């Protein structure tokens, strides 16, 4: 309640902010005691309350990350947040599904704030004709988007194994207060994985974020509430000024039958790799494309691909972009 009503220092150091169940009954000013000691993990709930265009709707991502970061400030037990693909029943949007970009972000960002896993919650009955809450016309896009987010993150799962460092430039509480875009990173060895989104952006608007970590610095551009996820090599990034930065990837037509036109913008001239994978992560098509500075278009033969959902990605050492493709 009232996340921005208290400073981050207060949230992370004042025992008055801690739920009574997590306080030691013998020394109430500290965290601990029988209940917490028996927990294998801590499970804050990050249910969302408001849908767009509510002025409070864009707070959803900072709100979720605040739950994780505030709990981590008090205990080193693993964080396993509860997440739900529908809006909470308090504020007029229940039981509608959350938006696709919200579901995808929910699958990706918690791990950048220190979560070790997620509990996916649901209320049974909405798909049961005998239930009073039966909703026969529900469209489960949120689940597809959530799973797509998990798939995107799974390609970098090694970044969250062993010894790694989380990069949290500003607490989520402060991002909510300033209504700023969210970016988080994880560093392992010579690689940095970056996730970013601007939940406060209007459709189609551009947001530029300056991402910095030690000697690494680059600007990334988001379109609308796009969810950015990209890995960079910290040692090589400064040595590749002639490698094209890839933005604005689109696929037309989509769904596709025989061919699809891949369009993207490159900041420089250079080679990029095209990879098409299925939802099992299997590579079904790959080729090298010579990108020119500016707008590029490439016709891709999809006639031999079985009907289904695919991930189309173009990338090089500086990063890349990806989109979903439906073939039929």
- Number of DSSP E strands: 17
What is the number of independent domains?
2
What letter string, H or E per element, gives the SSE order?
A: HEEHHEHEHEHEEEEEEEEEEEE
Low-confidence stretches at least 5 residues in length (pLDDT < 50)? 238-242
Number of DSSP helical runs: 6
Overall 3D form: globular
Q: Give the percentage of residues in beta strands.
A: 25-35%
Main beta sheet, described? 4 strands, antiparallel
Computed structural class: alpha+beta
Rounded to an integer in angstroms, the radius of gyration calculated over CA atoms is 21 Å
- C-alpha end-to-end distance: 47 Å
Order of strands, main sheet, comes to 5-6-7-10
Mean pLDDT: 89
Question: What fraction, in percent, of the residue positions are helical?
Answer: 10-25%
Provide structural commentary.
This protein is α+β, with helices and mostly antiparallel strands. It has 2 domains: 3-156, no CATH class; 241-328, Immunoglobulin-like (Sandwich), CATH 2.60.40. The chain has 6 helices and 17 strands. It has helices spanning 8-13, 34-38, 60-72, 100-108, 141-154, 172-178, and strands at 23-24, 27-31, 82-84, 119-121, 165-167, 182-188, 191-197, 206-213, 216-223, 228-233, 246-252, 259-266, 270-278, 283-291, 294-301, 308-316, 319-327. Helix 4 (100-108) packs parallel to helix 5.
């Amino acid at each position: 309640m009232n996340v921005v009503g208290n400073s981050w220092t207060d949230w992370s150091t004042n025992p008055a902010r801690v739920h009574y169940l997590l306080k030691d009954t013998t020394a109430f000013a500290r965290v601990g005691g029988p209940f917490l000691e028996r927990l294998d993990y801590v499970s804050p709930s990050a249910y969302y309350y408001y849908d767009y265009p509510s002025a409070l709707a864009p707070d959803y991502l900072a709100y979720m990350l605040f739950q994780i970061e505030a709990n981590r400030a008090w205990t080193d037990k693993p964080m396993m947040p509860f997440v739900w693909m529908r809006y909470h029943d308090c504020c007029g949007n229940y039981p509608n599904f959350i938006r696709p970009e919200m579901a995808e972000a929910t699958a990706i960002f918690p791990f950048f704030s220190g979560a070790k896993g997620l509990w996916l919650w649901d209320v049974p009955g909405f798909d049961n004709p005998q239930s009073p809450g039966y909703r026969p016309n529900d469209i489960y896009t949120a689940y597809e988007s959530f799973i797509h987010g998990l798939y995107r993150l799974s390609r970098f799962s090694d970044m969250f194994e062993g010894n790694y460092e989380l990069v949290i430039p500003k607490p989520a509480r402060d991002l909510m207060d300033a209504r700023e875009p969210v970016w988080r990173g994880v560093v392992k060895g010579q690689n940095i994985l970056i996730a970013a989104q601007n939940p406060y952006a209007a459709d189609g608007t551009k947001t530029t974020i300056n991402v910095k970590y030690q000697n690494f610095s680059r600007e990334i551009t988001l379109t609308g509430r796009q969810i950015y996820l990209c890995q960079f090599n910290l040692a090589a990034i400064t040595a590749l000024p002639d490698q094209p930065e890839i933005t604005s990837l689109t696929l037309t037509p989509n769904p596709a039958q025989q061919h699809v036109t891949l369009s993207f913008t490159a900041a420089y001239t250079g080679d990029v790799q095209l990879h098409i994978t299925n939802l099992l992560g299997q590579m079904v098509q790959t080729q090298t494309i010579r990108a020119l500075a500016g707008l590029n278009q490439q016709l891709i033969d999809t006639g031999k691909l079985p009907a289904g959902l695919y991930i189309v990605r173009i990338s090089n050492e500086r990063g890349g972009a990806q989109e979903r493709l439906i073939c039929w």
